[in-house]
Amino acid sequence: MKNLTIKILSFVSIAIGFFACKKDAATSEVPVIKLISISSTSVKQFTDSLSIVFEYTDGDGDIGNINPDENNLQVKDKRLSKADYYFVKPLAPPDSKIKIKGQLVVQLKNTFLLGTSNTEVTSFELKLRDRKGNWSNTILTPNITITK
Known about the structure:
Elements: H1 2-20, E1 32-38, E2 42-44, E3 50-58, E4 71-77, E5 84-87, E6 100-108, E7 119-122, E8 124-128, E9 139-140, E10 144-147
Parallel strand pairs: 2-10
Antiparallel strand pairs: 1-3, 3-6, 4-5, 4-8, 7-10, 8-9
């Protein structure tokens, strides 16, 4: 009986240890982004700015550049055919290879109407490129109403 109790306790201890140990999931060297929030879904043209907050994760920490001429954040107004590009400073020391996770805030100022109506609806697509040239997934904001 004593041996059976020891075996059962050993099994239970091993099972608890197995399920309690949670290893970090392997993180890709390709950046992954996730929309966290947007400041408003309605803005007045040329007056209100729009803040988009998103989370980034990167397995080797090579997001951002030292050279301010290297733009690695793409923001595309869905009403337009071409995207705008923005500079992101290094989010980890440039020579390190570390897993990073954090949040970035994009401030869009002077959003405006393209046509002659009093309101337009758009959304924005965002993606992030690392120093190796890997593009993250694309995230899409909810619809934004722009008014005069």
